[in-house]
Amino acid sequence: QLPESCFEEHDESIQFPPSMQRIIDSFNSIPKDSERSYHWSFVRGFITAEIALSSRTIEVQMLPVQFAVISQFQADERISAGQLLERTGMSEKLLLQTLDSLTNSVFNVVSAGRGMM
Questions:
Q1: Which residues contact 91 (CB under 8 A, 6 or more apart)?
Q2: Which of 15, 39, 40, 74 could, after both became Cys, cross-link 89 (CB 3.0–4.6 A)?
Q3: pTM score, two decimals?
Q4: In which order are the strands placed within the sheet that holds 47-52?
């Protein structure tokens, strides 16, 4: 049993790119039994994402909720906070905390095929 996060109540409303949503749907379709229950959490655990920059590709470990925000920049280089709220389906409080974590955190960044950066 994991302690509850104040943001887990928002899990159902967060929007992900279709490729990530297929993974979430697959996970959520795992049959439940009397001894275990499974629930995808967007504010726990880490995913590794490859991010293509103009000169190189990097791998970044981040929370799924952070990926929901970062993935919005695939189509648009600039996005307003209002657009992020609409596109991600997050509450304003969760979006602000996620943006803060993206701009003020140190990520475990690995250059593709080159080790730690």
A1: 7, 10
A2: 15
A3: 0.68
A4: 47-52, 57-62, 109-111, 115-116
